[in-house]
Automatic annotation (TrEMBL), chain A:
InterPro entries membership: ATP_synth_b/b'su_bac/chlpt (IPR002146)
Organism, scientific name: Komagataeibacter saccharivorans
Family: Belongs to the ATPase B chain family.
UniProt name for this protein: ATP synthase subunit b 2
UniProt keyword annotation of DNA-binding present: no
Gene name, Swiss-Prot/TrEMBL: atpF2
One Gene Ontology term of the molecular function aspect: proton transmembrane transporter activity
GO biological process, one term: proton motive force-driven ATP synthesis
From TrEMBL, chain B:
Bilayer topology: Multi-pass membrane protein
Pfam family of the protein (one): ATP-synt_A
Organism: Komagataeibacter saccharivorans
InterPro entries recorded: ATP_synth_F0_asu, ATP_synth_F0_asu_AS, ATP_synth_F0_asu_bact/mt, F0_ATP_A_sf
Main location: membrane
Protein name (Swiss-Prot/TrEMBL): ATP synthase subunit a
Function summary: Key component of the proton channel; it plays a direct role in the translocation of protons across the membrane.
Transmembrane portions of the chain: 33-50, 85-104, 116-135, 192-212, 218-243
Signal sequence coordinates: none
Cell compartments where the protein resides: Cell membrane; Membrane
Protein's gene: atpB
PROSITE patterns in alphabetical order: ATPASE_A (PS00449)
Molecular function GO terms recorded: proton-transporting ATP synthase activity, rotational mechanism
Keywords annotated in UniProt: ATP synthesis, Cell membrane, CF(0), Hydrogen ion transport, Ion transport, Membrane, Transmembrane, Transmembrane helix, Transport
Amino acid sequence: MARAVVYENIRRAGTLLASSALALPLMAMVAPGARAEGMPQLDFGNPYVIGQVVWGAGIFLVLYLLLSRSALPKVEKVLSLRRQTIETDLGIAHKAKTRADEAVAELHTARRNALAEAQANVDKVVEEARLAAARQTEEMNARLAAEIHDAETRIAQARGTALASVREISTTTAETLIHQLSGIAAPADFVTAKVGSAAAARGL
Amino acid sequence: MAAGSSIDALGQFELHPVLGVLGESLRFSQSPMMMIVASIVVLAFLYLGMRPAAVVPGRLQAAAEMCYDFIYNMAVDTIGAEGRAFFPFVFTLFFFILAGNYLGLLPFSFAFTSHIAVTLALALMVFCLSIIVSLKVQGAKFFAHFMPAGAPKALAPLLIPIEILSFLSRPVSLSIRLFANMVAGHVMFDMFAAFTIMLAGLGFFGDVIAVGPVVINIALMALELLVGALQAYVFAILTCIYLREAVAH
């Protein structure tokens, strides 16, 4: 859209210029008396022509002196100040970057050291826990073994006691059964001998 | 300007005394007056531009610094490291001519660069400076440049006069280039402005056609802005080239 407007403006300007060019002969016709009486610039008899050269030399010299001694050094001063400021700022930025890089490196080192230390602590704690657990297990096993041993001892005692009274109970039971079944009181020695042999056969 | 049915396109270049009797006695015309105005404009541009002296520049300061850098780079890139010494001179020359060219485009103003006496004086100043620097830096070797290296000695009687003529034509070409460009531009301005006035006297049809020269003058103004800068640049860069040859060992 904008390009079309530009093209249209160019076309219009072209048309106008072409019209103007075609009108040039007409313009020449209406200005038949265009004068050419010589160039005032070449009239060296005119004192102002040479006068302007003398004035021009002085003005140029003054301009040169003012520019070279005052105006241009001011620009140079500002430019050098800017260069200096930029260089100083860049130096500061470089130093800050170096410090930041060093801090990052230190941070990484500290992080690695802390990680290693933490890992060592964890390993140590785990090992201590493992040793404590093993010790505890060992103590518990020993205690349990002792208790088992005591229990077994008590059981053996109880069993011994129980087994010791088995023959007596069996003899009494056998005498009672014989008596109740036959109504005869069996001799105690006989019953005791029979119970004894039966118990021996069963390993009691 | 249009005077009756004639056009006096060269009348604009006539010099008249200003400041009355004092101007007459001091031969002070509008040309040196515009030189002073141009100098004041250049100095004001730099002084006002650099007044803040800020590390982060404003528009005017940036423009002043840009101009400084432009001429400095031109001088150093063209002349070499020795160009630093000639930088103020090239800067003065460029902006003196540029301001003169541009101030001459203002209505009721005067372009002092449209006078061959002024441009020739500037060109001779550059020419003399280059010869002085050449003789100071190169000594007698300066004259060896008039015999091209490697050329047969038998051609010396032909080549040396040609080289000398070519060397001597430098201020002529330098001055006429600037003078002719400025004169041509201002004459064309005057001619087309006069056409407008003359055509306007032909009634309705003339009024319509009179727009043409106005448009052409607008286009000419754009062209003259370009020419003004270009001629100042050409003058400055040729000065740098002559000085480079002068400082070359």
